[in-house]
Amino acid sequence: MDSHKRILGILYIISGSLQIMAWLILMAFFGVLLPFILERADPEDIEVIRWIFPFVRILIAVFVLMFAIPSIIGGVGLLNKKKWALTLVLILGCFKLFSFPIGTALGIYTIWVYIESTRNPAPAA
């Protein structure tokens, strides 16, 4: 079961890192796109765009980082064989079930690893 926990830890580190990289790319894309949008917008629409864009940027950042940072922390915890890490990734795995198809597969694998590790606990060293 330790090998599955190790694989799960690596997958969660990769998942969190990819979420952060995708967020950075998206923010860079919108940062480049915003001047073109403002150039073509009506003068009265410019104020609305300048108010909404930072709000949406912060909302997306909070949402992504709320799941990406705990994924990386949980993955590192699993690699270091911390007891709390499996519970953390189980909670994150339940949220990942809604992210079809890769998140769903990762969520199902997380639940399976959790069930198997509680069914067959490792002997105390």
List key phrases describing it:
125 residues, mainly alpha, elongated
Question: How many domains, as an integer?
Answer: 1
Mean pLDDT: 90
Structure classification: mainly alpha
General shape? elongated
Strand/helix succession: HHHH
Major sheet: none
Tell me the helix content: over 70%
Radius of gyration: 19 Å
Distance between the termini: 15 Å
Walk me through this protein's architecture.
18% of the residues are buried. Helix 1 (2-40) runs antiparallel to helix 2 (43-79), helix 1 (2-40) runs antiparallel to helix 4 (102-119) and helix 2 (43-79) runs antiparallel to helix 3. The mean pLDDT is 90. The protein has one domain (2-118). Helix content is 86%, strand content 0%. The chain has 125 residues and is mainly α.
Please write out the topology.
Layout: H1 2-40, H2 43-79, H3 83-96, H4 102-119
Helix pairs in contact: 1-2, 1-4, 2-3, 3-4
Concise description?
The chain is mainly α and 125 residues long.
